Amino acid sequence: DSQLFPALKARTLSQKEVDLQQEFPGHVTLVLLWIKAYGESMCDKYRLPFVKHFHGEPLAQYYEISALDGFFFKAFKGVIEKNLRKERPADRHDNYLFFSGNLKPIKKKIMENEIVGHAYLVDCNGLIRWKAHANPAELEINHMLDCSQLLLKEAKRTLNSEDKDNFGDLSCPVFDISNS
């Protein structure tokens, strides 16, 4: 069973406020989420093949989410955000979210392991259709790309049909290999 991606509002490194639930309709979205800094390098291993494979595809998008957890880190969120903006390439700023809100509901609903990076493939309805965490195996990357392709095909078909509210039952099951 697919579940809705939890409500999440954050600011991009280009300082635009983003409500992810408003970004999902009309798109297939790879959402990358981490709490610990080394989770970002794990998430890059999902992001890079996705960006390469779907370059120029207007219905495919991704968001990277660096999430702060803990009172100590939240006390320095301004400094941390400024450093992230300085250290990350400008071409990633619009898709790189900095989240310092309440992480508890997100951790409870979709994070199996707080130490590693997480990847979620979210359909046009905001449903998680595929997920993985930690360093991916080649099989996971291939399945992510195949599932993305199926979701894009269905999204295009639906956008071209008269019933734009019905995205159908996609034959792309939730795929989760825990390799941590």
UniProtKB/TrEMBL annotation:
GO cellular component, one term: mitochondrial inner membrane
Superkingdom of the organism of origin: Eukaryota
Biological processes annotated in GO: mitochondrial proton-transporting ATP synthase complex assembly
Protein name from the UniProt record: Mitochondrial ATPase complex subunit ATP10
Organism expressing this protein natively: Pocillopora damicornis (Cauliflower coral)
